Amino acid sequence: MTKEIFVKISECTLYAKLAGENYGKPTVIMDAGYGDFSKAWDSVIGDISMFSNVLAYDRAGLGKSETSSNPRTSHQMVKELKELLIEAKIKPPYILVGHSFGGVNMRIYATEYHNDVCGLVLVDSTPEDYRERFLPTMSQDFQQAYNKQFVYEGNYDEFMESLNQLKETKPKLNVPLIVLAAGKKAHYSKESQELWNEMQREILKISTNGELVVAENSAHNIQNDEPEVVISAIKKLVNII
Questions:
Q1: Domain 2-240, what fold?
Q2: pLDDT tens for residues 50-63?
């Protein structure tokens, strides 16, 4: 069973879709990549709803959600998500799932509201030192295309501010973490791919209980290329919690 909800928070109205029955399990909360929204999870949400409640939502200004006048940084987005969950009466504990930039948000949520969170799945998540360490290894064309993409929600400066906010999250998480890394990234040289995998492996340090899974046949959108990898990671956490 899937239902669509529109939830009024202090700044705007946010759209979310809820799927699954009440299995007595943690609710899976899904956050999409930069400029993307709940539709990004269509390839997996049905399967996940067979074993747990799941909520995917549109951040402010995307999909069916209204725009917000607040800055489009991770701290603000996390605050708005917290408000959405309270207003929609979606009670913790949560398993947080974040793709790409959504992984930045979910990492910050897990440290800000650690009592709410019992597990974390990061799907080819953006590392905090992406700009300084990874971007310079790519071609000029790639770097220019990357820098020009920030027109959908938040500008380049706000995105980089979000990565700075992530750098400032100090507490180590005491929840199981599964990091999913795309092993077949588009336009990546062998060296860039190896560096990407290494940076994904380093994310494991944020938790006392982390596991890396490389999706060997996936580009950035693992949920589309190898949906079963995402589904099984979430299922694993649901079953051990």
A1: Rossmann fold (3.40.50)
A2: 999 999 999 999 99
